Automatic annotation (TrEMBL):
Residues 46-120 form the Carboxypeptidase activation peptide domain. Keywords: Metal-binding, Signal, Zinc. It comes from Dermatophagoides farinae. Pfam families: Propep_M14. One of its GO terms (molecular function) is metal ion binding. This is Carboxypeptidase activation peptide domain-containing protein. Residues 1-21 form the signal peptide.
Length: 136
């Protein structure tokens, strides 16, 4: 059951990311709504699991220090806190060192977020092509 949940979470996060972009992409580069080009090659997708209020406070500080974009909110109650999803710019991998130094548990779900985006985008195109060929 856990692999299915992970796949659903990754699919959802990919859809969220793509919804922030224009519908066209080339070579893993997406245009955000502010027309900035985003290339997610080498970005890591991680799930952070804060266990107590001290770790939650540290995550808030790191969010500001590293200008992180957490995909779900940090709450002020350790019992209600869900794992936090985010992507990490390859230029900011010291963020992971900070998590390690603070004993904050995390999982690396993907070492290259661009591959997830490409797989979602081009995988759908491939399945449509195969379906069309089968119909002929």
């Amino acid at each position: 059951m856990e692999p299915i949940k992970s796949l659903l979470v990754l699919s959802f996060l990919t859809m969220v990311t793509l919804s922030m972009c224009h519908p066209t992409a080339t070579n893993g580069r997406f245009y955000r709504n502010d027309d900035a080009i985003m290339d997610y090659d080498g970005y890591q997708l991680i799930r952070i699991k804060p266990m107590n209020m001290e770790q939650i406070t540290i995550l808030k500080q790191l969010e500001n220090e590293y200008e992180m974009d957490y995909w779900n909110p940090i709450v002020n109650n350790e019992h209600d806190q869900q794992p936090i999803m985010t992507i990490i710019d390859p230029q900011r991998l010291e963020f992971l060192s900070q998590l390690n130094q603070s004993n904050i548990e995390y999982d690396i779900l993907s070492n290259n977020y661009k591959q997830i985006i490409d797989q979602e985008r081009f995988g759908n195109v491939y399945s449509k092509i195969v379906t069309i060929k089968l119909l002929w």
